[in-house]
Amino acid sequence: MPLTPVSDGTNYTSRHLGPSRSETEEMLRTVGYGSLDELLDAALPSSIRQQKAPELPEALPEHEAQERLRELAKKNVVLKSYYGQGFSDTLTPAVIRRGVLEDAGWYTAYTPYQPEISQGRLEALLNFQTMIQELTGLPISNASLLDEASATAEAIGLMSRAVKKGRRVLLDERLHPQVLAVAAERARAVELEVEITDLTAGVVGEDLVGVVIAYPGTEGDLKDPSSVIEEIHSRGGLATVVADPLALLLVSSPGSLGADVVVGSSQRFGVPLFYGGPHAAYIAVTEKLKRQIPGRIVGVSKDAEERPAYRLSLQTREQHIRRERATSNICTAQALLAVVASMYAVYHGPEGLKRIARRIHAHAVRFAASVDNVRHESFFDAVTVEVPGKAQAIVDSAAEAGYLLRAIDADTVGVSFGESATDADVEKLAELFGTSAVEPTDEQRIPDALVRQDAPLSHSIFTSVNSETQMMRYIRQLGDKDLALDRTMIPLGSCTMKLNPTAGLETISWPEFANIHPFAPDSQTAGWRELIAELEGWLAELTGYDTVSVQPNAGSQGELAGLLAIRRYHLAQGEGERNICFIPASAHGTNAASAVLAHLKVVVVATADDGSIDLEDLDEKIEKHGNELAAIMITYPSTHGVFEDSVREVCEKVHAAGGQVYIDGANMNAMSGLAKPGEFGGDVSHLNLHKTFTIPHGGGGPGVGPVAVAKHLAPYLPADPLATDSNAGVPVASTRYGSAGVLQIPWAYLAMTGTDGQANATAHAILGANYLAKRLEDDFPVLYTGKSGLVGHECILDLRELTDASQVTAADVCKRLVDFGFHAPTLAFPVAGTLMVEPTESEDLGELERFVEAMKTIRAEIQEIIDGKVDYEDSVIRHAPYTMQSVTADEWNHSFSRTQAAWPTNSLKSSYKYFPPVRRIDEAYGDRNLVCSCPPPEAFDLTTDTDEKLS
């Protein structure tokens, strides 16, 4: 069906697409086609084109989409949340909400793999790590995980790797139910024996890898974990403590009590309830476990001028690099929300946080003193009251009065106090329990042995901000250091850094969406559930599958959920021997990591010279492993950036052998509206809503990775972690809908683009990639092309011959692009010595040409080295990038001019010029000298030796 042309400026799609109609026509002429339809017919194999267009609703103008979202929001019932169970009422300071959460400079930033242009977000994440280290009393923390339940699962995996001989793990029955559900199933998936037990009775049994202890428990009870920790250590195991970070302002740190690992959620540090997420989890470990920790660690290194500079440390831990040797499949986390939490700590400081914690504790103490039959004497913020046979009646009457309470069971009610609680609330809650509130007292219910003695958050960053003015400027100061999508194209292949619709983004902080507790009853969440059902239905339409679940809160978790569904399906068919997963050599690295976590054995299928799956090798692997074949994971279009003609044949071969086909949806931006993986052979796919469907990357998260399946796999989709009925699926996140709080964004994107808009977006993404490939092919050969010499939505530029001739590496080109005001393309993936470029549909012709000009200028600089006019070691590329300070210093010790260094093209002289805050960073130094907390202020004194001040 021919594409419907987009009218310039008359609807959202025309605003989403970068090129105007005349620019589109010019780009088509350059690549040699008369229309988008002609280009698509040449680029896409006819065998994958969809049978009929997806039936999406007619596209809405932006204001009408927002009106519809307001209708949905009004269907939710916002109560004062006293539910608890891992999710607390909190107040987001307006300066942080507007300055970070709603600021494009923060939410459109990419993961800080290019550290020179990421110093602001790296500093904010280092603040997060420092905050967690000081609160937990452990020396190493990472820069966030996905949520508390999956973080607990990661901790169990860490303990099992460190204690190699053990096969059993004990889970404290006092953990939140959702934590128990997710962690237990994840542990069982890798064949650990799980026992949920009362740890107060002592540690029983042998062959233990460790224990997981609640601190406090799900009912609010606060117990000293020291004896359990000592006991597990005496048996050779490790101890993980799941801790509330706000409680740690007042209670002893788990590290001081002997814990080896501490995990939890930082949600109550200023992040809204968001109906379950996104919320930044955390993990902290002892020094001896630092090389086992999953996820990313921000560390301190130095740049070419010996200045302290931040970067991701120990990058080999990145799971997409380790592939089938991976111990975790974490690829993204919750960077934006970790930034919010760290800014909350900076804004309030240690004394402010203590005041908040003390006020919350005082309200809980006053309430407990006012009612009868309080179950636990010691607690921080949550009070459990025994009300035989009356729990639901009290919860219902509380809802009528505007309060959300937790019915733990028919005889017990939980009341958990949050930041906005007032004395008036305490009095009303006491009245709901049939009594009157006592007068406030100075009593506390924290055991004397657990009262915190040291002063956390001692670093000066947490005491340096004393006013909103200072906070506003600090946020701006960090943001100005970074290069994000609000300033430049981010041409990252496979990462799809496209326009994120503001009309959807600004709705995430509306109270009717943001202030809903994930475990609120369905009667209070009608709007949320209607929005989610519509979104899941639209995604099913676009993919050609039967059913979609939005529970996975990252692409990696969508992969895991899909593979667990396949594994469960085979088991249900009595084919438990099917435990091998074929993965093409060119696949995303998280594919192999997810397969390992689903307890599947990875067998790599070779890649042919043209970048497609080697069919002969596939046949050989099927012949050898056919009876054990569980699945094949295919990225389509391939990671090499081409549409493979053989994809249907691959699917048929695997199906004939009894296996399932997993089609990785990371590259759905090349198919949405044009092709449906569920139609051309897929049984399951995950989608990256932070790629194709416009949830912003936020510096490395939030992400949402829905899993879409054919009908026969639908029973094995992720279960509600609180479900009591038997569901064949395995929960992968803390809540039924995962990171629901950002789903308005893809909802708005699809509502405003509709069927034609999706097809046009995909067509323009393919056009943009082919335009850049054509414009750059004479300077940087395109490594792989498909049908008619075309690429998909991305292309790989091959620099290997240039490197051999000049010593200039692909990494050098990445650093030099900073001086032109560009984020680098994807470096060395999937082929070493190359750059993978994805312009997306959102970049206009002028921006594409600016990138072409930069790349051609760099190519000319490389040619000067090849021709012997310039020595590589003294070249402008070798020393890039250049800070403002370096090019304005009195001393300049280079043979090239300052102008060539900082203003290599005339266009840079007449437009906004970005200067990175640091020079090229010494990557190796940061790994040799691991520092992953905020350096002292004297580290930035240039008169001192760098090694000394960072040690």
UniProtKB/TrEMBL annotation:
<dbReference type="InterPro" id="IPR015422">
    <property type="entry name" value="PyrdxlP-dep_Trfase_small"/>
</dbReference>
<comment type="similarity">
    <text>Belongs to the GcvP family.</text>
</comment>
<dbReference type="InterPro" id="IPR049315">
    <property type="entry name" value="GDC-P_N"/>
</dbReference>
<dbReference type="GO" id="GO:0005960">
    <property type="term" value="C:glycine cleavage complex"/>
</dbReference>
<feature type="domain" description="Glycine cleavage system P-protein N-terminal">
    <location>
        <begin position="434"/>
        <end position="718"/>
    </location>
</feature>
<feature type="modified residue" description="N6-(pyridoxal phosphate)lysine">
    <location>
        <position position="691"/>
    </location>
</feature>
<dbReference type="InterPro" id="IPR015424">
    <property type="entry name" value="PyrdxlP-dep_Trfase"/>
</dbReference>
<dbReference type="InterPro" id="IPR049316">
    <property type="entry name" value="GDC-P_C"/>
</dbReference>
<protein>
    <recommendedName>
        <fullName>glycine dehydrogenase (aminomethyl-transferring)</fullName>
        <ecNumber>1.4.4.2</ecNumber>
    </recommendedName>
</protein>
<keyword id="KW-0663">Pyridoxal phosphate</keyword>
<dbReference type="GO" id="GO:0005829">
    <property type="term" value="C:cytosol"/>
</dbReference>
<dbReference type="GO" id="GO:0016594">
    <property type="term" value="F:glycine binding"/>
</dbReference>
<dbReference type="InterPro" id="IPR015421">
    <property type="entry name" value="PyrdxlP-dep_Trfase_major"/>
</dbReference>
<dbReference type="Pfam" id="PF02347">
    <property type="entry name" value="GDC-P"/>
</dbReference>
<feature type="domain" description="Glycine dehydrogenase C-terminal">
    <location>
        <begin position="761"/>
        <end position="882"/>
    </location>
</feature>
<dbReference type="GO" id="GO:0019464">
    <property type="term" value="P:glycine decarboxylation via glycine cleavage system"/>
</dbReference>
<keyword id="KW-0560">Oxidoreductase</keyword>
<comment type="subunit">
    <text>The glycine cleavage system is composed of four proteins: P, T, L and H.</text>
</comment>
<feature type="region of interest" description="Disordered">
    <location>
        <begin position="1"/>
        <end position="23"/>
    </location>
</feature>
<dbReference type="InterPro" id="IPR003437">
    <property type="entry name" value="GcvP"/>
</dbReference>
<dbReference type="GO" id="GO:0030170">
    <property type="term" value="F:pyridoxal phosphate binding"/>
</dbReference>
<dbReference type="GO" id="GO:0004375">
    <property type="term" value="F:glycine dehydrogenase (decarboxylating) activity"/>
</dbReference>
<comment type="function">
    <text>The glycine cleavage system catalyzes the degradation of glycine. The P protein binds the alpha-amino group of glycine through its pyridoxal phosphate cofactor; CO(2) is released and the remaining methylamine moiety is then transferred to the lipoamide cofactor of the H protein.</text>
</comment>
<feature type="domain" description="Glycine cleavage system P-protein N-terminal">
    <location>
        <begin position="15"/>
        <end position="433"/>
    </location>
</feature>
<dbReference type="InterPro" id="IPR020581">
    <property type="entry name" value="GDC_P"/>
</dbReference>
<dbReference type="Pfam" id="PF21478">
    <property type="entry name" value="GcvP2_C"/>
</dbReference>
